[in-house]
Design a protein that fits this description.
Largest sheet: none
Oligomer: single chain
Distance between the termini: 41 Å
Helix content: over 70%
Structural class: mainly alpha
Number of helices: 5
Strand content: under 5%
Number of strands: 0
Order of helices and strands: HHHHH
Radius of gyration: 13 Å
Shape: globular
Length: 99
């Protein structure tokens, strides 16, 4: 299964109220992106998993995924939205007020 299918499956599982299965699908998406060497999809999968974990109050588990997103640099700007959202979530976790 390709990365986008894993991400879609995770969205569907979340919509059905199955966050534990969505978390598994997102982990599968990360693995698939690593295998495919697709940095854009890897970044999106990490961001989605980080958001899911934050939403469940599992901030400590989310931090490594969010930090990996923040460190991602792709010159064409294809993951800029994810990088900004990740930085915002990290500031929120650390209790740093929004500017």
């Amino acid at each position: 299964m390709d990365v986008s299918r894993h991400l879609q499956r995770a969205r569907e599982l979340l919509a059905r109220g199955r966050p534990e299965l969505a978390e598994s699908a997102l982990s599968d998406a990360i693995d698939a992106a690593v295998q495919a060497e697709d940095l854009v999809m890897l970044t999106r999968a990490r961001m989605a998993l980080g958001e899911l974990l934050v939403g469940q109050g599992r901030d400590d588990e989310a931090v490594p995924f969010l930090q990996a997103v923040v460190r991602t640099e792709i010159p064409d700007g294809s993951v800029d939205a994810e990088v900004k959202s990740s930085a915002r979530l990290l500031r929120q976790i650390r209790g740093i007020p929004e500017e």
